């Protein structure tokens, strides 16, 4: 589900599951997509963007 945009791309929140990223802590994450490529992750609690280490194509389906 698209929830907004940040400078790095469009932010999508997963539906029906919780996506997490792990570093020093485990944090809930939303994906950030720019031009069909995973740009990184938005951490809503920290209000911070974490860039992806590797570019990955993300095929998105739009709901009508």
Summarize the structure.
By secondary structure, the protein is mostly beta strands.
List keywords for this structure.
two-stranded antiparallel ribbon, five-stranded antiparallel sheet, 64 residues, mainly beta, 48% strand
Describe the protein's architecture and organization.
This protein is mainly β and 64 residues long. Helix content is 0%, strand content 48%. It has one domain. The protein has no helices and seven strands. The strands form two sheets. The protein has a five-stranded antiparallel beta sheet, with no helix packed on it. Strands 3-4 form a two-stranded antiparallel sheet. It is globular, with a radius of gyration of 11 Å.
List the helices and strands and how they pair.
Blueprint: E1 2-6, E2 9-12, E3 20-22, E4 26-28, E5 30-34, E6 37-43, E7 48-51
Antiparallel strand pairs: 1-2, 2-5, 3-4, 5-6, 6-7
Sheet/helix structural class: mainly beta
* Uncertain residue ranges: none
Radius of gyration: 11 Å
- Span between termini: 12 Å
- How many domains comprise the coordinates? 1
Q: What number is the mean pLDDT?
A: 90
Shape: globular
**Total E-strand runs:** 7
Give the number of helices.
0
Give the strand order, joined by hyphens, for the main sheet: 1-2-5-6-7
Specify the biggest β-sheet.
5 strands, antiparallel
Percent of residues in beta strands? over 45%
Q: What share of the residues lie within helices?
A: under 10%
H/E element order: EEEEEEE
